[in-house]
Specification:
Length: 221
């Protein structure tokens, strides 16, 4: 009976589940961030944290070989020794490429574990994403935690918070008042322009009327 056992089965057999989680953790070590379903991310997070703990213990030279073997056994990654020549690339060059980009145990022990020397736990974070199209599965990002860094979800600009209805109504009323004031100011400007035009027209008509009056006086004489 499974009393007090809280392990996610993920709908797979034991062998399939352990291999899948090992592959997820290896991808996390190589790429530093992976996108998967929320259930798998939570299950892989446990394994990743345990691997970092083993990597921190393996920093000691006396126990380095012991913990290196434990990590490779859990992640199902045996060390490669034979690299035949392929596509004109020598075995020595292929070994360097594999060691830099594919040797998961070396990356964990030399690059990731030393960065968590002052941290006692919580080496990974799970960030929820939208649901996947097709089966509507909950998606999530699984990534390593660094002191002072920004999560991937927070790098994007945050959405504007919705204001309460009362504040929205007040803002709308203020906008309407400002629009009404602008319209009134425009109307006043138009009226002032019309008055100026009328005054100019009167000034232009005044000399013509004086000329006509003078011509009438001359005729009467």
């Amino acid at each position: 009976m499974r009393h007090r056992i809280r392990k996610a089965k993920l709908g797979r057999t034991t062998e399939h589940r352990t291999a899948m989680l090992a592959n997820l953790v290896c991808s996390l070590i190589k790429h530093r961030r992976i996108e998967t379903t929320l259930a798998k991310a939570k299950a892989a997070r446990v394994v990743a944290d345990k691997m970092v703990t083993l990597g921190k213990k393996g920093q000691d030279e006396k126990n380095a070989l012991k913990y290196r073997r434990l990590i490779s056994a859990r992640l199902q990654r045996r060390p490669r020794r034979h690299f035949p020549k392929k596509n004109g690339v020598s075995g020595r060059d292929q070994r360097k490429i594999w060691r830099e980009h594919e040797d998961v145990v070396r990356i964990l022990l030399e690059e990731i574990a030393p960065g968590f020397a002052d941290r006692s736990g919580g080496y990974t974070r799970v960030i929820k994403l939208n649901r996947r199209q097709g089966d509507a599965a909950e998606m999530a990002l699984l990534e390593w935690v660094k002191d002072g860094d920004i999560p991937a979800a927070e790098e994007k600009p945050a959405k504007k918070e919705k204001k309460p209805k009362a504040e929205e109504e007040e803002s709308k009323a203020e906008e309407e008042e400002s629009k009404a004031e602008e319209e009134e100011s425009k109307a006043e400007e138009e009226e002032s322009k019309a008055e100026e035009e009328e005054s100019k027209a009167e000034e232009e008509e005044s000399p013509e009327s004086e000329e006509k009056a003078s011509e009438g006086d001359k005729k009467s004489e």
